[in-house]
Design brief:
It is found in: Cell membrane. The chain is 77% helix and 0% strand. The protein has one domain. The chain is built from 17 helices and no strands. The chain is globular. With 334 residues, it is mainly alpha-helical. Helix 4 packs parallel to helix 6, helix 5 packs parallel to helix 16 and helix 10 crosses helix 11.
Length: 334
Amino acid sequence: MNRTVLPFLRESLALALIGLFFYLFLFIDFHEIEWNIPSQLLTVNTMFLSILLEAIPFILLGVFVSALIQTFVSEDFIKRVLPKNAILALLPAALLGAIFPICECAIVPIVRRLMKKGMPLHVGVVFLVGAPILNPVVFASTFYAFSSQLHIAYARMGLAFVLSIIIGFIMYLIFKNRNQLKWTKEELTTTVQLKSEEKVGKLKSTLFHASDEFFEMGKFLIIGAFIASLFQTFLDRTLLTELGSSEFLSPAIMMGFGYILSLCSEADAFVAATFGGTFTTGSLLAFLVYGPMIDLKNTIMLFAFFKAKFVAAFIAVVTVVVYVSIIIYQAIFL
């Protein structure tokens, strides 16, 4: 009984909400209503919408690519193209990330799908941290934002490439490619899925997978964007600027700032450029490298689809590796 009633109730509620939206949009003049809303809540709303609108196009791209992988890429193909040696497989994964213009918003569903198709865990990690930075769109935006300091654009790409391989290798040492994905009952019973794909055809199957993945990912994106907007609104930024001159402390501060802001990697260079007169070059690189690898909104996505132990280890490894590499880079090149 519940199997028939619950879907009906969900669809009825969705239609009622859509109807309410159109009624309010067409017949209610909100300008005539006096709103006594605190300015900070309006700021939260603005930040939330800006993060959401910035991320949704890339989420759509990510889930569509994920659906194409699910429909057209077989497990045998993944096993054939990847080197058998676990260490040698790290390099092509980093190079693969340089091809696709995908930000950190879209990379989680793609890596998750590739892992379900048989991609080793450590190779997926390399793609997870490398692809949001190592792509032509990010390089172009960084190059333009730091046109007077082009070494920052080149350093960002070089550090991302090397660190993605190092992080993948460390995660391989920790987990030895043990499965760290969360699987649903439907995903474990693949026979129903295969039969349905045969009936509807590959094109419709791709669209079905994309829509399912979008709504599954979307709720966690909304939660992450809301939490990030709260931090952006209530965080005291004057304290950050007071600590920006320290060579050891400022990289850590900017890494935390990058984590909280949760900017898409295609746009974060322009934000980083505004801190050029306040923070050190090393701390700007820390912001540009760390933020796309792990931020607040994709942390929530990772916890939703990967085991908590893996996500905690992943965050710790990325944080330590990026911070140490920035300190070393400052000592050698700056």
